[in-house]
Every structure is written in C-alpha cells, then in structure tokens.
Write a structure and sequence with these properties.
The chain is built from twelve helices and twelve strands.
C-alpha cells in the first residue's frame, strides 16, 4: 500500500537539507566576515599605535617633511593617514579631499574620551566604506589610520565562491551533521561568552581587591603618624609626671595634640569626600547638583578661603576672572579650587599665587599658577594619585593628607572634564581644571 506523500519525502528532505545548508553557510560566512573585520581591526589598531609613536616627535617639532614621508609610506600600503588636534581639528590628511573638523567622527570621539577608538563606516569625504582607527599621540594630537573596506573584505571575496559551492554540494548530505554542528557552535559561543564574562568579573574582582588592599595600607600608614603623636601626648599629660611639667611645655604638648587631631580629622574628611566622588556623588549625602553658576564668583569665594593661609605663608594671592556662567556643582568646583590653591601654598614656596579663569566654545579652564620649586616630570605623571607625595617627610610635617589633588581629579571627571599640571622644575607649576560645557 502506497502512502500518499511519501514519494515526496526525499524532495522534502533534500529541500530541508538545502535550507539547513544555506543557513549554516550564511552563518559561517557572517562569522568569517566578522572574524576578518576583527582581525583587520586589531591589525589596524597596532599599526595606528605604531604610527602614533613614530610621528609623535615630528608632531611635537612641526617636522612636516617627516610627516609627508611617513604618509607616503602608509599610502603605499593602502592606508590613509590623518593627524588631528586634541579638540578634533585637522592638522594633516593624506587625502587631499579631506577638510574641516573631525571631532564628530565616532572613532575620534572615542579617542578623545578614552585614548583609542575604531569605527567601520562610510567616509564623509569620499563616501567609500572604510575601517578607521584613532589613537592619541602625546597630549595634543590624535593619529588616525583608515583602510578601505574593499581591502578588509578581500579574503572574504576570495573564499566566497568556494564556500558557496561547498555549501550547495554538501547541503542535502550533511543535514543531520549540520544541525549538530550548529548546535555545538551555539553552545561553544555561549560557553565562550560565559567564560569571557567570568574572566572580566575575575579581573574586576582582583582589581578591586588590589585597590582595597593598597588603599587600606595607605590609610593605615597615614593615620599611624598623627595617632602616634596623639597617644604620646595623652600618655605624657595623663602620667604621674604631668603635674611637674612647666606651663610652657604643657602648652606646647596641647598645641601638638590640637595639630595632630586636626590633621587626623582632615584626613578622615578627605577620605570620605574621595569615596563619595568615586561613587559619582557630591560631597554631601545627595548626588552632585548641577546648576548654572558664575565661575568668577566661585573663584572669588575660594580665594577668600585660601587668602589667610596664603598671607601666613607670605604669599600674595591674585584672582583674574571675568563672569562666566557654566552648569556645574558650585560647591565641588569651589572645593577643587581651594585644594589646588592650598596645595600651592603648602608646597610651592612661591612668593605669589594666581587663580585665573579662561573660557572658549568647549568650556572653561580654571588655572592655579605659582612660581615656586616646580615638579619633576616623574612627579607630574603621578601627582594626582591618592596619597602620592613628592617629599613624603616634608609633606607630612606640613599637614597635607595626600588626597587633595586626587579629589580635584575626581571633581573634574564628575563634570566630564580633566585636571592637569604643567611644570618646569625651579620655575613653578600651573594646575588646570577644565570644565566642559554641557
């Protein structure tokens, strides 16, 4: 007895096998394309990093002859070289059609924010799809390399016919195997993703553990010094020989007790402020409150807070600022300016101190300039780290917590800006706090 429809079963199976084969072929070609693009992206990122390091000195010295020669060498490899200023303005481009600012390009925005960025998109200048990779070169420039997508996809074009033929020929015969492989591939991808997530979590856990260990060690070390002094004074004043101490010695011990207690209280306050800022909060219980504020008024208030301390140190404090309204947390900005000014008063040894304000289309920059001892390059690279001190013994004697500049850095980052220092040893420092316009 012939069952209706069974005659068509081989055709159905062949069609199902063909459909499955085409599906697998499509998935594998897509995965292969992604792998090709990923490999090309990593290769271009490495080339861009090497290019940034190779032409960094030429950019700093304005050696455009070297820059043109380097660009010609990259053009021979099919690469387009672009050099941009930190705001995104074009300094050099091997494509003669390029012009204007590149600040809105996604890879440039990422490089400005994080130091590196990549994008696969159509070129605004030529309309051709290209792979872009941008990297910072020093403080003032961004180097970008671009590779045509046709070059990136060349391996895919070479192998596509063979893949298509193999898929069409083997689709019907490997139906079951294809289904098994698809499921195994999905499982492997899932396991790989889970492993990647676990590795990231493990790395983050280790980073947090290292930070906590170092932070606790630093805090313990910083607290130990004032506590030792306080306990020593308490022991003297509470001991049997306290009544025999002269009044002058007793007053000196009480003054020492007051200084060390004040220092311990300041350290605790700075630690709490830094912890709140690292959580993205303000200096109080609520999150940072952004509102339009006149930076000139903030600088004037900060200067009034610092002026008595500067006068006691024999420093003349000047403020140079014009009315500039910007959305910010006025309290945090004021604290950051006070920290910068107090840092100069404590450590610079300068006869004068200037707090200045400048503004442009990107935002406002608050600078604190002294003409004191300055900072060595190695110290400039680390001065915003927690508990970092140039001269640890002298800084403890002066009462600094080692957290003031770290707080300034976090205030800047909370506003989407940055804190930097420029210094020449023996000629002073300029600390800058940049606040972007919202």
């Amino acid at each position: 007895m012939k069952i209706p429809g069974l005659a068509y079963l081989p055709c159905v199976l062949a069609a199902a096998g063909l459909a499955a084969g085409l599906h697998v072929l499509h998935a594998e070609m897509r995965a292969y394309r992604e792998a090709v693009v990923s490999w090309a992206t990593r290769d271009l990122a490495a080339r861009t990093q090497l290019a940034a390091e190779s032409i960094q000195d030429a950019l700093a010295t304005g050696d455009f002859a070297h820059l043109h020669a380097f660009a010609d060498a990259r053009r021979a490899d099919g690469l387009r070289l672009t050099v941009l200023s930190r705001p995104g303005g074009m300094v050099f481009d091997s494509d003669p059609h390029a012009k204007g600012s590149h600040a809105d390009r996604p890879e440039v925005r990422a490089a400005l924010a994080t130091g590196e960025g990549t994008a696969l998109r159509p070129s605004v200048c030529t309309g051709h799809r290209m792979l872009f990779c941008a990297r910072r070169a020093g403080k003032d420039f961004i180097v970008r390399l671009a590779l045509p997508y046709e070059t990136v996809a060349e391996p895919l074009r070479r192998h596509r016919p063979a893949l298509v033929v193999a898929g069409l020929v083997g689709a019907s015969g490997i139906l079951l195997l294809s289904l098994v492989l698809v499921r195994l591939a999905a499982r492997n991808r899932r396991l790989a993703n889970e492993r990647a997530v676990q590795e990231r979590l493990l790395a983050e856990t280790r980073r947090v553990a290292d930070f906590r260990r170092d932070f606790i060690a630093n805090v313990s070390h910083e607290i130990k010094t004032p506590l030792t002094g306080i306990l020593g004074v308490v022991e003297l004043l509470g001991g049997p020989a306290a009544e025999e101490l002269p009044a002058a010695d007793r007053a000196e011990l009480l003054g020492m007790l007051r200084r060390e207690s004040t220092r311990l209280d300041g350290l605790a306050r700075d630690i709490l402020s830094l912890a709140r800022l690292e959580r993205g909060e303000g200096d109080g219980d609520a999150r940072a409150a952004f509102a339009p504020a006149d930076l000139a008024d903030i600088l004037a208030t900060a200067a009034d807070r610092v002026r008595p301390r500067a006068a006691a140190a024999g420093m003349e404090l000047k403020v140079r600022a014009e009315s500039t309204v910007l959305s910010c947390d006025a309290r945090l900005v004021e604290q950051a300016v006070v920290n910068l000014a107090n840092n100069a008063v404590l450590h610079s040894g300068s006869p004068d101190l200037e707090i200045a304000l400048s503004a442009n289309a990107a935002g406002a920059t608050i600078s604190v300039t002294d003409h004191g001892v300055g900072l060595a390059p190695a110290d400039q690279a680390r001065v915003f780290e927690r508990f970092y001190r140039v001269d640890r013994a002298r800084d403890r004697d002066r009462g600094g917590s080692g957290l003031g500049l770290a707080i300034v850095k976090h205030v800047a980052q909370l506003h989407g800006g940055d804190a930097t220092v420029v210094s020449t040893p023996g000629r002073g420092c300029t600390f800058s706090l940049f606040l972007p316009k919202s």
